[in-house]
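Please produce the structure of this protein holding pyridoxal-5'-phosphate.
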Amino acid sequence: MPNTVSFNADYPVLIRSFELYEKAKQIMSPVTQTMAKGPGQYSIGACPVYLSHGKGSRVWDVDGNEYLDWNAAIGPLSLGYGYPEVDDAIRKQLEKGITFSLMHELEYEVASLIHEIIPNAESVRISKSGADVCSAAIRVARAYTGREKVLCCGYHGWHDWYIAATDRANGIPRAVRDLTFTFNYNDIDSLRDSLDNEVAAVILEPFVFDEPKPGYLQEVAELCKNNGTLLIFDEMWSGFRIALGGAQEFFGIKPDLAVYSKAVANGMPIAFLTGRKDVLQLFEKDVFFYTTFGGEALSLAATKATLKVLREKNVPKNLAEKGQILKDGYNKLVEELGMKAYTQCKGYPCRTTITLEATTGNPLAVKAYFQQEMIKRGILWQGNHNMMYMHSKEDIEYTLKAYADVLPLIKEAIEKGDVTSRLRGKPIEAAFRRVDNFNMKPKEPAK
Ligand SMILES: Cc1ncc(COP(=O)(O)O)c(C=O)c1O
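Below is the modeled complex.
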């Protein structure tokens, strides 16, 4: 019998998952299209590799095992799997057509909703992926300022301008690598030191798991303004989760440009670039940004339906309330077990993460052990709580019970120093070795 969301007696039986994985390895390199869903992030040998379907907050793997999913498909599922109003909207649009030979009326309808919801959206562009709109924002910022350099902080997708600044930049021409540099979050001096009159844009996630220091985002905005540099908020994760209008609404700061995707269409592929009209109007002629599926109507219909639910049910508030219970519950357990040196749950409640500190000895092996024990208890776990509207109070209670069961095992393994001998699979792999405090802009020599 497949495992369910319960304290299963045994680890799940994973036969078809591994068969598919072995076959896929013969013809795909790598097997995954999204690193965060791939085997490197789920302990190979201990975790399912392929899912088959989902409903609400639950997913089933290809061997029929059921899990409570805290990953929300790495962000897009703001509501949950198979949310009826969104799926109905997709079905209705499917009957009328998927994509057309002229623009579709939904392009305007959805743009006007985004214009209403996102504070800086004087103007709106629609595209397909996060990387698309990040690149479009950088290109238009370069055109507007007549400058070429970019300062970034965090992850911004797979395109050349950004990956050039990471340690996986093979295949990117040297000339491009010389144009993007990183700065460190919450360290205003690291930004100030790198800003000069060659910097077209500063792009950052307004927050990831650390809160901005008081005044930090305002200072970033002011530095950019005084330097003639455009400020871009990458709101892939904060958008529609922390507040309907994203971090710009939450913190009351309007960046020149902002980019959104993930949570806006409950799983359908769509992305938005919003910002100043005088900047975005360069796309009319001088700056090129077009793609075949940009006006694809199923995703637009899903966006319209998702926005309606997000608004009417005040989903950001719901995510914050549930996320807070989970975060507080985890940290209370950690305190009771005397594990504060090893782990904590941190982040704004709509999306929190479990840290595993260097004090644990080998955080990536500890994470694999943690993951394997959560999987046994029917929880698909990658260390984050990406809150969905369809996560129930019972899901949270159950997850806290699972943590209460698993954390003592983690503590014991760390303190006995035998984590690796408990692993049924491989340790988790680091996605990038270095993304920040890396490739900082060299200081100009004093003149
Ligand atoms: C902050 C951020 N920016 C950009 C991207 C790239 O988005 P996509 O994978 O849709 O191209 C991601 C993806 O996870 C992201 O988290």
